[in-house]
Batch of 3 targets.
Target 1
Amino acid sequence: MRFLFITATIAIVTLVGCVTQPIKHSHTSIPTESLCCPSVERSPSRSAIVRTAAQLVGATTIESNGRHIAYDCAGVTRAVFLKHGIDLYDAEPIAPHANGVRIIHAHIRQQGRFHRGPDAHPGDLVFFNNTWDYNGDGKVNDSLTHVGIVERQEPDGTVVFISRVAHAVERYHMNLRLPHVHKAADGRILNDYLRRKHVRDSDNTPHLTGQLFAQFASRVRH
């Protein structure tokens, strides 16, 4: 049995978004066939994508046999799909210095489809804007700064997605019916905080997942 090991490139930063923070080294492995032969699984299922993503929950580093994969939200998302023979970084050239989220977005534009919900499906990608100050200008004008993989949608509409956030790969929540509400009256989390609060933020700066939502996307059909 061969293994895909997910490995980390660690950067010290102060924002949540799609950037890494100082972390403890703990390795998680995903059983897989060799990455050399994507034809082994020509059309992965949504459930297979979700199972692979769920195996990474709690992981704080990733390493790959002979393949550099950044330990950020885009790198973790890419790693999950690579296990099933799909490279989300396989896209026509886009702007120089584009971040991984924008590269994945370009890939979907060429080989998948976007949708706004409100219904999301397991295995969908979910994109966010303005999760951190990507261009460093102190303004809320940063598109496509975070990405995750939808695991499921609860009966109340809350989407549970898996992504690399501040310290590790975690499950996060988003409810587009109540995008400005963090917790329900019974204590259930409807929208997690995805943008860290900063002293420069104005009172109307968005911080919750539902407020920062950009769009969903589908890369696999079933």
Target 2
Amino acid sequence: MRARFAPRMRLSAVLATIALAGVLAACGGDDDSGTTRRDGGGGTPGTDLGPRPDGAPPPPPPVDLGVDGGGACVPTIEICGDRIDQNCDGRETPCGDTDMDGINACRTGDDLTRCDCDDARADVRPPFGTLPGAPELCDGRDNDCNGRIDESAACCTACASLGASRDRADVCTPEGVCDCSTAPGLEPCGPGQTCCGTGCVDLNTDFANCGACGAQCTPQADRCTARSCTCGTGPACDFVTMCTSGACG
């Protein structure tokens, strides 16, 4: 029985080998030489898609999220157009001014304190020219894009002792000191004074900051009295009359 069926078994093996060779020839083979490409996802893993056509764009790079030691995404300032989700919101931020606040989103190479560190929110923007950055809103965000969160005197606990007079300071330092940053020293302004862009001032009498920081009286007045611009002991003159030596005319 063995002698009679041996030739038939050898013939079956030969036919199987020929069939396998035909399948490999039809598929073009795969020697992992880099001339073939494989489906990176969606289809069967490792599926040979044949040579990549000339001029075809390379596959997109994988999204590279910053991760902590436990594998969670750690939010940082989003860089537009780099295909990396730095702020962990699950999407790429387009370049330009998406939130229409006049400041463009941060791009690769930008000073991250001078570009919009959150271009999805109009209440977040850095200083621009003579305009200050957005005010800190005590909302857990870096509203003015200076790299610190809720550091304004209105938000930080170091200035809580000022009570209703928190305008005597404008910031808490990284070391936790309540300070008027525009005045000499490292402390808030004295009682009755307000921390303005020019330092500590008395809004009741300061001609350049009458009633509010930056509210300068016009030539229709010659002094600031009780937070109002006045000409001498009377009210400010009308808009076509100058105040001269305490009198209008």
Target 3
Amino acid sequence: MLRFIFVAALIYLAFQIWRFIYNVNRYSQPSPKRPRLAGVMVKDEICQTYLPEEEAIKEKIDGKVYYFCSEECRQRWRAEKKRAGLIKS
């Protein structure tokens, strides 16, 4: 009976060591998740929302860059600026 308990304890100990090594290897590798955007947040001129610069639609006028969350916001902004006479075409 004592031999059975000793063998069971050794098997349990071996299992715990294997599980520890397996988890260390599994968590030490980088996860293949979607890459995080590490850029600057910019503000949409129309709806005032913030979005990553990489995802924004850009419009450059007179050396200044304007950012938009969608083509719809960009078109609305252009229409407002045309009415005010600040941009041509």
